[in-house]
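Lab meeting prep.
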Amino acid sequence: MEKFFRLMKKLQMPGILALIFLAGVLLTIFTQGCSRKKEILSRAENRPVKLPEKILCRIKDGNNPDLMVMTLGNVDTPLADGYFYPYEDKVVLKNGQEIENYYKEHLGIKYYTPLDKSNFPLPPSGWCSWYYYYQELTQEEVEKNAVWLAENLKEYGAEYCQIDDAWQGVGHGMGENRDWTTIDHRFSKGMGNLARSIKNLGLKPALWIAPHGQSNLEVVQKSGAFLVDQDGKSLSSTWVGDFLLDPSKPEAHKYLKELFTLITQDWGYENLKLDGLPTVVREYRNKKSLMKFPADPDDLFRNTLQTIRETVGPDCYLLGSWGTPLEGMGLLNGSRTGGDTLLGWDGFLVAVEATMNYYFLHNIAWYSDPDVILVRYPLTLDMARAWATLQGLTGQALMASDRMYDLPAERVEILKRIFPAVDIRPIDLFPSSGQKRIWDLKINHLGRQYDLVACFNYDLNKTVGIELKWADLGLEENALYHIYNFWDKEYLGSWEKGIYLEIPPASVKVLTLLKDNGQPQLISTSRHITQGWVDLKSLSYDSARLSIKGTSQIIKGDPYQLTFVYPRNRRNLRIKKASVPGHKFSVYNYDGWSVVSIESRSTKPVLWEVCFEEQESYYNYPVATPERLRACFDDSKIVLTWEPSYYNTAGCFVSVDGSLYLYSPTNRCQISNIDLNQEHIVEVKSVWLDGTTSQKAASIRIRPEDVAKKLIGNK
């Protein structure tokens, strides 16, 4: 301090100015420190506050057009075509070619703007009233669901409680129901009171509104803000209301400021779903000549959003809805990317279509919202898991929309495994057509590099076969990869080349793929579908002591499982002892893998350590040669079947022309993309868990002339 004042004296600065200067310096240091602390905390919680300078990208499909690729963490993969630079809107391919204005011109996203993550580092997670209650909602039902949410999903990351269409006006549908100045009698305590009750539960209140429309004639006449003729009759009656704001009028912006000041400052809502925006854009384009001061319709529309944004401030989340309002990009935090969902499997397919069409915008230009997730009957558990997988593996906005306190425990369990939405981003920066069946999320976290691969069957009536090849996923095709089935909590062994899967109708399989490094490895944690990203805070391996230790964020009352796998040539490993100070835990040793299950009486970080040892021996079964190998032909595929083994086996290796093709855990396999105009030798050998195969193979010669026979092989 003495040095400081000597410096001020040397500069001939008066004492009071010196103190002001010192205060400014200290304030700057404090502000920078807080900002740095915020950045550090955000990184520690896996909540990045800005986009990376460059992002891995593919600009077209690779060898497998059925594949979609995403990343979580600092990932590299040979599947990438190059890098996308979001702040420059530029792609640089591996061959050095540059594509300028990639989103704006190449993809036609006129208003592309890099996503500002500073206020919302992650997409919203929570509950929406619409798809159970629709317009039959009451304040009491909102409160019941909010209480349930706070007690059951808040600790899992659910934050928002959204009141959708039903709170405003009187009646139903359009007409009187588009009056934002009148509160429906079912919300007699008031919208501010409801927002406060939600906040008192530790949640954030969210509200639906179609702000460009109005149906109260008195409001329209008093404000002078709407599109009307000289007699005061509406010039635009649409779904958003009997009257539509004239965006060219200063009165329209005054109206919006007053409305959103009421909603956010007086009532206290922190997340707003702005509905009907594409309808508004369309109407502004069609009714431009009827405006008081005609100008570019898209610019006028964006001006209304700018007024809303300035009024609500940066801490209020704005979601564009009902269609995909691309014209709002840069002003909206997120956007619906499809139509309204439906109850049942068709609703899930709506979400799939939205993801295929617009996922390339997610976590780059805004947070994409494929609409809500439903898990209630008549969805089967398999269907609910498929929908949850779509949400959990893409990281899109995550809003449940069931009557939450009526959900059975097994349905709630599914939701617990996907909350909250996390910082997942697409590699595939292009819209996709059709329904891709293989979704690959590549994760790098605490030194663990692994893939989560979802294999979907969209068909309601038939089982489909999927060839999951390591090479197609950018993995080392000849390396061993451990395979863990997340939803069924099963270890499937470690295999090279890939695996053949049969997916039942309307369902999904989520497989964790972890490259075998010759040591015991942690392959899965049970807290979240990302299996470590949300919960695992530290992890270290000690190969000399043959131990693994870590820290996990465990939720009160939620049994937490750590799953460990062993190299297939060291299947005799098992857990010798585990340590979880202050907590009850159990150890389960299986053939080639082990599980530690931990219980916690409070939500907090838990330290754990696991030590392994080798048993004297382990069990092997001598596998027999498969019998009655057959081949039938389906378009460009060969479908193989053989007799189910009477004796024990871990599955079969299928080879084509002397090279291993895939591992199949069943007595079936298929071979795609094969030239049926050439002769091929197909062989099948049974295999045990340690990779030992039957001495002999079942084989079949496939010649071009056999294709017309439809079925060949041993009878």
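Slide two material, second protein:
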Amino acid sequence: MAKQKIAILGGGVGAMTAAFEITDQPGWQNQYDITVYQLGWRLGGKGASGRNHAIADRIQEHGLHVWMGFYENAFDVMRRAYDYCRNNNLTPGTPFPSYLDAFTKMPFLTVPELVNGEWKIWPVYWTPNNDIPGQDNPTDAPSPADGTPWGYIRAILQFIRADFDRLCDGEPLIQGIVDDLCDALMALDEYKGTAGKDTLLHRVENFAAALPLDPAKHPPGSLDLLLKSLGCFHDKLIELAEPSAKSNDDIRRLLIIISTAWGFIHGIACDGILENGFGAIEDEDFEQWLARNGCKYVPSPLTVSMYDAAFAYQHGDPQQKRGGAGSFLHGWLRLMASYRGSLMWWMNAGMGDTIFTPIYKALAHRGVKFEFFRKVTRLVPSASGSIDAIEIDVQANVRPEVGTYDPLVPVKGLLCWPSEPNYDQLVEARQLRDPKYINRDLESWWTDLPAFGSIRLQAGRDFDKVILGISFGALKYICADLPAADASRGWRGMLDNLQAIRTQAFQLWLNKTKEELGWNPGRNDDPVMCGYLEPFDTWGDETHLIVRENWTPQDNVQQNPYWCNSAPDDPQQAPFSDPSYPATQLQIVTNNAANFLNGPVGALWPKAVINGQFDWGLLVNPLNITPPIASQWIRVNIDPSELYVLTVPGSTKYRLAPWDSRFENLILAGDWTLTEVNLGCVEAAVQSGKMAAYALTGSPTFIYGSYRRQIPMKEAPMRVVARAAAP
């Protein structure tokens, strides 16, 4: 029997996961012939990173990337990829022989609060545990969150009770309030608290833990009793504690946490989530839903941080926070209640080095073919409901004596992706480097480099199935012909209702530590912070990566902060024929970065600012580039394939599942498809890739939910109460 030819378009997380899962099946070579077609010289999509050989092989990321402790599917793939590379000696001498070497626990999160005109840092330390995501043998006690909405109610109650107890033991004002609560709120006598604490909160937690896991088996009236009791505790606590909230950080933060938790629990119980899943509230904005369910502190530093982490600003406008309540609530609960090992995990090198190198090496060794420098421009549908052809521009050709393009370069024992192509392997090297071209970036849609030919892949001859793994922002161009050929109007609904935005970032290399610059949140951990001022509201301290770069002692690099945020749409966006456009947009972000350093950063690093101006001598600038800010890594993601997909209210029901492309031979893969986690993140992309492999081969038959709970593949898409028909 002839092999099926599979064309995989794009090299991001979703596409590479699909390829990895297909080729992880015994005997796959007898059934499939797989070719990946990738824009430019590297894999990664929005997760691509590059090494700048001219400046100490420094790591230059597309964005700030942190892995969450609930990324069971993503860590599962990485574990198997690293094991495969080690067992086949594909990365000899690597400092990361195991995926456990490639990641470090990151339990520290900071949240800024503006209180009485002063910025205060709210340090949040999430206790690590001995579990390891991506493995089948958890070592800790099971989480109270079993992955169901009722399990999350239990987990929320356990969390707020533990936080309440912690403050009771150390804050006299809170202890006095506890005495008042004990006097005023005695109820649920058979569920008394323990360890000397016996408020209604303790009794509610015990009451919830005693109820069956299946809400359908709860005694009549039990949910009403729980809500009445917890609501009474919530209201009485605010009445007693709120007068002290502005002057007492611990009390203020406790009220925010407990009132937010009350909104979660009330909404889960009253808005159909127990019966219909998180999709029941997906058409409502998260903060609006939370306020409607009784949370007294909306917005709060906690909710703003959630929007910032998801770049959830419609059109990139900071005034337009928009997030589907179901996806946001589900994602937040997965993060807080089901993390394993640590709330978050740092990668110990760049995203490209840590993630895409082992996947690439494994796939190439297995026999997957990679065609780099191939820009997909159009999918051509047939009249019979399939993809008839794929049109591709050739950006460069590999020299005949080279044979197969080798995209990697060694840096300190790691095989890494360079920040520009390995030109010596390319026929057109001279033209690609010719300064007469204004924009020589092969990953830019605004490049004025010529195409060196074109390819038309024909169904039945060059491919039998297509896996479309290119980012959503590019689909309106690449798939422009599909809506008219889709009688179900699913493509029209998706393209019209899903949204993607620009992002912006800057990365610094400084000759002083954050502590030397005045940062003092009470811990020395490398933090992540969300919820600060625009235009860069999110900060990740990636100082741990300095050892993976080639700095000299004279460079004296002490700190590596990364700032990012959404970026506003440009109504006057230039046509792709204008190669000068990217430089104008980069200059805007460069100016934004300079202004941010001259202003808002001073509240966090007060010793970095002298007389109202940032001390530019802090920047490590071995090439003496001027102005100094230009010596650092500034990034604006404006290309269609780099845009970040949003989860605006009402949009999730328009997503297509990986196996539901509406075209017979087309399979979808990416964080823009319908999965269990409908947010722009690695875990959603990996779930989608696994679902794409299932659509093609029937395997794997499940994805992992919280704590490695196996979810049958057909149940993997988040439940949507009413799937929308396109207008």
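Talking points for slide two:
The mean pLDDT is 93.
The radius of gyration is 26 Å.
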